[in-house]
Queue: 2 jobs
Job 1
Amino acid sequence: MLTLVPGCTSDTPDPLVVLGPWTGEEGKAFEAALNRLDDGTGRTYTYEGTRSLRETLVSQLEADAPPDVAILNSIGELTEYARRDELKPLVEETAERAYPPWAPTLLVDGRRRTYWVPLKVDLKSLVWSKEGTSSDDPAWCVGLASQATSGWPGTDWIEDILLHQAGPAVYEEWATSRLSWLDPAVRQAWTTWAELLGDRSPESIERSLTTSYEGVPGPGGPRGLLDSPGFDCTYEHQSAFIRYLYASEDVRVEPSARFLGGRAEYRDTYEVAGDMAAVFSDDPAAQELVERLSSPAGRKRWQSEADPGVRPLFPNTAGLPPAVPANPIEQEIDDLLNSRARTLCFDASDVMPPELRDAFHRAVLEFFRDPSKRHLDSLLRQLETVRVQVDEESADGRSFRPPEVICASSGG
C-alpha cells in the first residue's frame, strides 16, 4: 500500500481516497504525480495501491466505505458497479476524454452516459524475443501464475488468436456475451493455441502453471521468462507492460499477427487494455480529481515522474505532444499503437462479467494441462453454461444495457 497525504493540516477535509492497481515503481510514479497535483481546493489525497484490487474494492463496498476514486482494468467489473448504482456518471469535461475502445458509454434508464475514463493504456498483440533469434520454429515461453488471477496470460493468447482469425466483429460479439462459446471460431482459437505450443512434457506443463508471468526471480527481482532458468524458450506473447523487464538492447518486440494463423485483413488489428478511473463518491472533489488526472497536464506530469520501464502509454487522442521515446522498444510500441494499428479491440476477458471472466481463467489452466478434444468440449460447455446463467441473472428490473461496442478505429 502506498499512502500520500500532502499538506495535511487539522483544518483540511478528509483526504480523498484513490484505490488503484499500481505498486512498486509504477505506484511510486503515480504517487509522485498525485503529489504534484495542485487542484486549488486544499484537498489531500491518499493512494492505496494493491495487487488484490477486486477483493479490496468489494470488501470496501460491502462495508459501505468505498474509495472516492477507483482505477480498474475491467470493463466487466465497472459495468457491474454502474448497474448497481455504485458509480457516478462523469462530468462532461472528463467524459470527453473517454476514448474508444477503452471507455464505451452505457445506456442507463434511457440515458447514455460515461462512467469511466482511461488514465493509461497498454498495447497487447505483441511478441517478444531476443535479437537474432530465428522465428522458423518458435519455442514459446509460458508462465500462467498470477496470484488470485492466474490464467490470464493464457486467455490473452486465445483472445488474440480469435481476433486475428475471425476478425473484430466476431471478437466483439464473443467478448460481449452475444456469441456462444460453442461457436466454431471460438473452438478454433483454443485448438490453434494448443498447436502453437506443441508437445510439452509433464514437467514443462507444471513449470508453466506454477511460474509467474514475470518469470523466475533473480537476485534483483523478476527477470522475464526469456531470461529465466528452466525455460528453454525463444518467444513470449505478452502485453506492452512487460517492457519493464525487457528494456535491454538485445530484446525485440513485434506484432503478434504473423504467428497466429490469422487472415491478412486483420493484420493491423490489435488487442488493448487500460486502467480506467471511476468515481464512487458524491464528493464533487472526486470528479475534479479525475478530470485533472485525465487531462493533458495530468498525463504529462505522470509521464515525467515515471522511469522509462514503467512510463505510461497514452493514445494519440490524449492531447499530448509526441513524447521522446525512452528507448527503441518504447518507440516501437508507441508507433504500433498510434500510427500502424488500424483497429483496436479491448481485452475480451476484461469486458466479460466477472463470473464469466474467472471461469475463463480457470478453463485455460485446465486446458493447458489437458488439451484433448474431449476435455475442450467439456470446458466450452461449462463456459457456455456460465454465459447463459450470468445473462439471465443480470436482469434487475432497471433499464440497463452493457456495452456492445468494444472495438474502434485507431485514434477513435
Job 2
Amino acid sequence: MTNGTRRKQDELPAYVPPKVGILSRIPASWVPYGELMRIDKPTGIFLFYFPHLFGTLYAGLLPGSSQGSPMDLLFTNGILFFGTVFSRAAACAWNDILDREYDRQVLRCRLRPLARGAISLTQALGFTFFMTIVCVGFISALPLDFAKAAFPSITLLVLYPLAKRFTDFPQLVLGIQIALSFFLGIIATGYDFSTFFERTNATQRNSSLIAMIFFYAANVCWTVVYDTVYAQQDVKDDAKAGVKSMAVRYRNNARGLLVAVALLQVGFLAATGFYESLGISYFSLSCGGTTSAMVWMILTLDLNSPAECMWWFKNGCWLVGLSITGGLGYANLLASGRRS
C-alpha cells in the first residue's frame, strides 16, 4: 500500500462496534466471526435457500412423485434452511479469506474483519472449517443421494471467489452454483430420479426434463440479476482494484444487461409452466409476480445509488422469491389433491 493510499485510508471513518442488531447482543470477541458469516445480513441466507425450497415444491409436480405429508416437507425444508445458514457462512468466510487484499481497497468492504485485522488468517480458516463441518452434519440428515449431488455445487462455491480474478462473469458462475440447489431440493425430498427415467413414457419424461432445465436457467438468471445489482454498489472501487464482474464490464449499459437477463428469466419461468402444464395460478403468481418485480426494478432503480441497489437487493429477494414460491406451492397443492 502506498503512502498516498494509507493517508486516504486514515481519513476514512474508523470501525465502530455495532450498537444495534444481533451483533450488539453477543460477546465482543465473537463479533468479528458474526461479521465474517454475515449473521447480521440474512438476505444472503434466503437467496441461497430459496432454490432449495423451489426444488422441494417442484418435486411434487414430477411424474411418479409420492411426496410425503406437509410435515415431512416442512421437516426437510427445516434441515435445508439451517444447513444453508452454515453453508452460506462458510462461503462468506472463504470469500473474505481470498478477497482480503481487495476488500481493503473497496470502501464498503474495507472494515470487514480480515480486511481491518480483527482476526487472523488462521482464525478465519479455522472458522470456515468449523462452519463446513456443521453444514456437513445437516447434509448427513438428508438422503445419501443429496450428498453425492451436492459435490458439484460445493466445488463451484469454492471456486467462485477466484472467478472475480479470471473472468468478467463471476455472477454467472455464482448463478450456475446457486441454481443447482433446485435439483438438490428435489433430491432432498427423496424423489427417485431412476424412477423418473425408468417408469415414465418418453413424451412425459422429455417434457418434464425440458421444464426442469428451463426452471434451472430461470434461477441462474435471477442470481445474475440480483448479484449484478449488488455489485453496482462497488463498481467504481472494483474497477480500480482490478476486481472483475458483470457490473464492471457492463457499467456503461448495466440497465440494458438487466433488461436482457430479466426477460430471459421470465421467459424461462413461462416455458417451465408450459412444458409442465402448471396452470393459471403458476403463471399468475410465479411469472406475473416476477415480471412485476423486475419491471418495477428496471424502471425505478437508480443504479448509481448504492443505497437504492442495496434496498432492491434486500427487497427483490422477497418479491421474486415469494412470487415463485407461491406459484409452485399452489401447483403442488393441486397436484397433491390429484394424487390423493
